[in-house]
Design a protein that fits this description.
single chain, mainly beta, 3-stranded antiparallel beta sheet, about 15% helix, globular
Length: about 100
């Protein structure tokens, strides 16, 4: 059974702040596994495990299309709150 920890981020946070939180938590908890919204906050779910070799990056989808750099694996696509607005985003991990 995988143990997971959900980090809640203020709805007012910017994408840069959220990506910084991802790096911090991946270093201390383990890899990002899911993104979303929970009770008016951005929810970032991390598996309790060794830190990943490459950190996940969350980016805004453009017209509903995720930005997936070559050689990256999609972790999750969902709405998160960016500066208070629900925004479709995708989390990827470079390989």
């Amino acid at each position: 059974m995988t143990v997971e920890i959900v980090a809640k981020v203020a709805a007012s946070a910017s994408l840069d702040v959220i990506n910084g939180i991802v790096v911090q938590n991946e270093n201390t908890i383990g890899p990002l596994t899911q993104i979303g919204i929970d009770k008016g906050l951005t929810a970032l779910t991390f598996a309790v495990d060794d830190p990943p070799a490459q950190h996940a990056v969350i980016s805004k989808d453009i017209d509903g299309t995720p930005t997936i750099p070559d050689g990256s694996t999609v972790i999750d696509t969902d709405l998160i709150l960016l500066i208070g607005l629900p925004t479709l985003c995708t989390a990827v991990r470079p390989n």
